[in-house]
Every structure is written in structure tokens, then in C-alpha cells.
Design a protein that fits this description.
heterodimer, A: mainly alpha, MetI-like fold, 2 domains, B: mainly alpha, two-stranded antiparallel sheet, 73% helix, disordered N terminus, Multiple sugar transport system permease protein (chain B), transmembrane helix (chain B), MetI-like (chain B)
Chain lengths: 280, 314
């Protein structure tokens, strides 16, 4: 009995590890290939090699004349950083109103907010593009950042409303006794007690904005405005299939920010998914 | 004297409450201003406007011209639209169940007290985190290419592979595999759901001598059904909107022979490379309609298979 449970346990472990390895193998292979000399990449499916080189990274970094991936990273970081700050401020403001304040038409607005969570972006796509076109915002970061300043990521509002409702109301009341107004309750009670949900919002806003290829390809069209995903695609097109080594090198580099965020905030991400159903 | 004081107090509180209610309402709207502008300017307004545009011919530069139902009629005679609808439906019908089953099986496997669970969970979750990126789409394009890793491994077993990405019968399959590969996020949600199932139920079933299959179908599945339902709805909505992988793998064409022409990719081509924005709006509304109907169907069938402990109260 004991040996058989032990055996089945070991088998489960072996299976889980093997299956996990198979799943991650392509990614590991890409990482190792990015450090191999071009000629060796396709000579063997192994991730090991006798010779390692940084050549692919040097060649890949300089995409076209005058333009390096550094520029794409700068653009991507700028857009993502604005998106994170904007979402934190405007979504939490809306959520505070919905969770804590009484006002006319509250139910109507709350229903509207819930509806926009499920609404596919395509329903508003063309007119939004037309508006940004009229404003002369095409090929700038504005179409990618201004919507965040207007709390259009309703999912995060909903997430925060849920969280804010869990904060005891007595805290508000004692704050009122101490002479706090509505705004101070928001800044001094609600926000400081909501760090977990604010972190979850920041992480997922960052990841989604960084990877939002569709909006980026729609609104950014000159190389100087390109983000990392657009730069990668440009690089793939210009290098063709001729230098996979440097294409892999730049692909690996493009994944570094998201992977770093993941490993730093792993607990928040996994818990965020498990408790809220948000998906990475 | 005291009575007057009391009366004053009552007066004060009475007076205070309407004014504070008004104050609160004003404050609330102040907090809601960004969202309200966004809702009217970037969601509701554009929704109505795109509904109108779907009945027009519009190229961004000249004013929209009313054409009635023309866009919708053209759609059903447009071979590429039909191809796009087929590709997307095939993808949804195959990829969503495959992904959810993989997620559920691995979650059940991992739902034990064992060493290294954290590392395993991370390993299986990672593809979900990375899978939506251009980088992974590029990797996939290479993996399933003629000289790619997959064919090298097949050659090792003496099997002659082929250019999977370039073959119209297999290209969509590679994208389905990519989607299935990203089962980790659903798995994490399943794991959380499994943890909620009371241990006593399993113990009682074991005492009663229930078989493993019975335990799975009589305890695990019913109690997990709300989570399955949630994952199903979310994946369904997401799968209709796949874009990045198809765009990168087919280099924006949706080829070979429209075999990876996902609906949103065709919508992008129509709206933003051919600037047939009326047509693209009509396409968008058909998509919204189909997603809505599918979601509604799932909701309607849910009362037959989703089991709520509290009798279905939300």
C-alpha cells in the first residue's frame, strides 16, 4: 500500500515535470538559440551548444540605420507607464464613487459600466479611429493613452469596487469624526488599504498595454513611434527568414519586461487570477 | 431650555442630511467625470456611430453615404468573409474545449499536497503570460516552418515533416495548438475552484466506497461547474477576437488560401488597409451579435449543468 502510493506519487511528479518541460521547451530553445552562432541554430534541436555568442544581440539591436531597439523600448515603456498611472487614478476614482457614495442615477451608471466590460472593442473601433483621426492624433501615443485617462478599462473599476466594498465602513465614519471630507476618505483611507488591488491593476495594465499589438499597429505608423511589438514585426519583415538568430535575440529581449514583472509579483498575479478570474 | 437645545439639534441633523446628500452627489459626479467622459465619448457615442456607419459606405475622407443593408448583403456573398467566419468558428469550436479540458486535467493533477507545487503552477502558467506576444507568434512561425524544431524532432523519429505554416490544411492547426498551449490561466482558476470543494465530501465518498470516476462526475464536476461556466464564457469571448498570432504567422495576409484569415484580421484588412470602414463597421456588429448570441446560449444552457450551492443567487 505504502510503496504503491509512493510509486504513484513519483510517477505523477515525473509526468508533471516531463510535460512541463515539453511545454516550455520551445521557449527555452528560442532563448538558447539566441545565444548560438547563426549556423548552429538549425543544426540540432538541442538547447545545448559548445559555442555561445552575443553576436545575435549586437546585430539585432540595430534594426535599421539610426534606429535601435532602445527607441522601441522607450516608446513601449512610456505608453505602458502612462497607462498604469492613468488606470490607477481614474479607475479608482470611479470605483470609489460606485462603492462608497450615494448619488442619483447610480444604478444606471453602474449597469452601463458593467456592460462595457463585456463589450468587444470592435463595436467602437471605427468611430474611435475616426475621432482620433479628426483630432490629428494618429501616429502619436495619445490614442493609446487618453482612453486610459478616461477610465475605459471598466474591468478594473469593477475589480476595485469589489475590493473597496470589503473595507469596513466604520473606518470612513471615524475619519468623518476626525474631520475628513469625502476626498480625504478616498486618499487617506480607501487607497492606502487597497494596495493589493492597485498592484493587480498595475501589473495587468502593464502586461496588456505592452502586448496590445492591435491598437499599436492601428495607431502607430512611423518607425520613430514604434513600440517593441511593432519593432519586432518590422525586424521580422526586413530580416526575412535570413537571420533567425537576431530575430530570436530581439524576441527574447522583448519578453524580458513582462517576465521580470511576473517573477517579482508572482504571488499577486497568481492570486489575482485565482480570485478574480482576470487572465494574463 | 434643554428642549430648545434638543429641537435645535434635531433641526441641525435634519438640515444637515439633505445638504450632505447633495454634497455627496456632487462629489460622486466629480469622481465619475473621467469615466463619464470616456463612457459617452469613447464607448456609447462610438457604439451608436458605428451602428450608423454599418449602413453606409465610408472611407474616412469623404462623408458616409447611406446604402441601407448593402454591407450586410455583400458580406454573405463575400468569399473572404465566409472564409473568415469559417476559420473563426472552427477555431472557437476546437480551441475553446481543447484548452479548457487541458486546463482542467492539469489542475486536477496539481490539486494535491505535494512538493514543488509552486514551481509546477508557474511553469504551466508561463505560456499564458507570454503567449499573446509578437515574440511567441514569431517563435511559432519558426517552430512549425519547414526547417523548424517540430520537423527536426519528427525527423529524429524518422518522420518526414512539412511546412505546416505554409500548408492550408495545417496552418490553422498550428494556431489552435498555440491557443491550447496557453491553458495556464484557466488552470489557475480551476485550481482555485478545486480548493473550494470541501474535503469532507471526498472523505465521505471514500468511506462509501465510491469509485474514482464516480467521485469525479458526482462531486468534482458539479461543484466545479460554476468555474467551468466562467472559464467557458471568458474563453469564448476571447477566442472570437484572436488577432496577433494570425497576423504575425500569416504576415498579415490570413493565408495560405485564407486558412488563417481570422475574423478580426479580415476586419482589420477591410477597415484599415482598404479603408472600407462602413463594411468593417457592419462586420464588427455581426461579430458583436454572434458573440452576444453565443454567450446568451451558454447562459441559457447553464441552468441544466451549472450547479450553484446557494441555489443560483448571484
Amino acid at each position: 500500500m505504502d510503496t504503491s502510493t509512493k510509486l504513484s506519487r513519483t510517477l505523477t511528479h515525473v509526468f508533471i515535470i516531463l510535460f512541463g518541460l515539453i511545454m516550455l521547451y520551445p521557449v527555452l530553445w528560442m532563448v538558447s538559440s539566441s545565444f548560438k552562432p547563426e549556423s548552429l541554430i538549425f543544426s540540432t534541436p538541442s538547447i545545448f551548444s559548445d559555442t555561445w555568442t552575443l553576436e545575435n544581440y549586437k546585430n539585432g539591436w540595430q534594426v535599421v540605420r539610426d534606429v535601435t531597439f532602445g527607441l522601441f523600448f522607450k516608446n513601449s515603456f512610456l505608453i505602458s507607464a502612462i497607462a498604469v498611472v492613468a488606470n490607477l487614478i481614474t479607475c479608482s476614482m470611479a470605483a470609489y464613487a460606485f462603492a462608497r457614495l450615494r448619488f442619483p442615477l447610480k444604478k444606471l451608471w453602474f449597469a452601463c459600466m458593467l456592460m462595457t466590460i463585456m463589450l468587444p472593442a470592435h463595436a467602437t473601433l471605427i468611430p474611435q479611429y475616426t475621432i482620433f483621426h479628426e483630432l490629428g492624433w494618429i501616429n502619436s501615443i495619445l490614442p493609446l493613452t487618453v482612453p486610459k485617462l478616461l477610465a475605459t478599462d471598466a474591468f478594473f473599476i469593477f475589480l476595485m469596487v469589489q475590493f473597496f466594498r470589503g473595507i469596513p465602513k466604520e473606518l470612513d465614519e471615524s475619519a468623518i469624526m476626525d474631520g475628513c471630507g469625502i476626498f480625504q476618505i478616498y486618499t487617506k483611507i480607501i487607497l492606502p488599504l487597497s494596495v493589493p488591488v492597485l498592484i493587480t491593476t498595475s501589473i495587468f495594465t502593464f502586461i496588456w498595454t505592452w502586448d496590445d499589438f492591435f491598437s499599436q499597429i492601428l495607431y502607430l505608423n512611423t518607425v520613430d513611434q514604434f513600440t517593441v511589438p511593432l519593432g519586432l514585426r518590422l525586424f521580422l519583415d526586413s530580416q526575412g527568414q535570413s537571420s533567425w538568430g537576431s530575430v530570436f535575440a530581439m524576441s527574447v529581449i522583448s519578453l524580458v519586461p513582462i517576465t521580470t514583472v511576473f517573477f517579482i509579483f508572482q504571488r499577486y498575479i497568481v492570486e489575482g487570477i485565482a480570485t478574480t478570474g482576470i487572465k494574463g | 431650555m434643554q428642549q430648545t437645545a434638543n429641537a435645535n439639534e434635531v433641526k441641525l441633523t435634519k438640515k444637515k442630511s439633505p445638504s450632505s446628500a447633495r454634497k455627496q452627489a456632487i462629489a460622486a459626479y466629480a469622481f465619475l467625470i473621467p469615466w463619464l467622459i470616456g463612457f459617452f465619448g469613447l464607448v456609447l457615442g462610438p457604439m451608436i456611430s458605428s451602428l450608423y456607419l454599418s449602413f453606409t459606405k465610408f472611407d474616412l475622407l469623404s462623408a458616409p453615404k447611406w446604402v441601407g443593408l448593402d454591407n450586410f448583403i455583400t458580406m454573405f456573398q463575400d468569399d473572404r468573409w465566409i472564409a473568415a467566419a469559417k476559420v473563426t468558428l472552427t477555431f472557437v469550436v476546437v480551441a475553446v474545449p481543447t484548452q479548457l479540458i487541458a486546463a482542467l486535467l492539469v489542475a486536477i493533477l496539481l490539486n494535491k499536497k505535494m512538493a514543488g507545487i509552486g514551481i509546477y503552477r508557474t511553469t504551466y502558467y508561463l505560456p499564458s503570460l507570454l503567449g499573446g506576444s509578437v515574440a511567441i507568434a514569431i517563435l511559432w512561425k519558426n517552430l512549425f516552418g519547414m526547417d523548424g524544431l517540430i520537423n527536426q524532432v519528427l525527423a529524429f523519429f524518422g518522420i518526414q515533416g512539412q511546412g505546416w505554416i505554409a500548408h492550408p490544411d495545417y496552418a490553422l492547426g498550428t494556431i489552435i495548438i498555440l491557443a491550447t498551449w496557453q491553458f495556464g490561466a484557466s488552470m489557475v482558476i480551476f485550481l482555485a475552484g478545486l480548493k473550494q470543494i470541501p474535503k469532507e465530501l471526498y472523505e465521505a465518498a471514500a468511506v462509501d466506497g465510491a469509485k474514482k470516476s464516480q467521485i469525479f462526475f458526482k462531486i468534482t464536476m458539479p461543484l466545479l461547474s460554476p468555474v467551468i461556466f466562467f472559464n467557458l464564457v471568458m474563453e469564448l469571448i476571447k477566442s472570437f477576437q484572436v488577432f496577433t498570432s494570425a497576423f504575425i504567422i500569416s504576415e498579415g495576409t490570413g493565408g495560405p488560401i485564407n486558412s488563417t484569415l481570422f475574423y478580426t484580421l479580415y476586419l482589420y484588412q477591410k477597415g484599415f488597409t482598404q479603408f472600407e470602414m462602413g463594411y468593417a463597421s457592419a462586420m464588427a456588429w455581426v461579430l458583436v451579435f454572434v458573440i452576444g448570441v453565443m454567450t446568451l446560449l451558454v447562459f441559457m444552457t447553464s441552468k441544466f449543468w451549472v450547479h450553484y450551492e446557494d441555489g443560483g443567487k448571484l
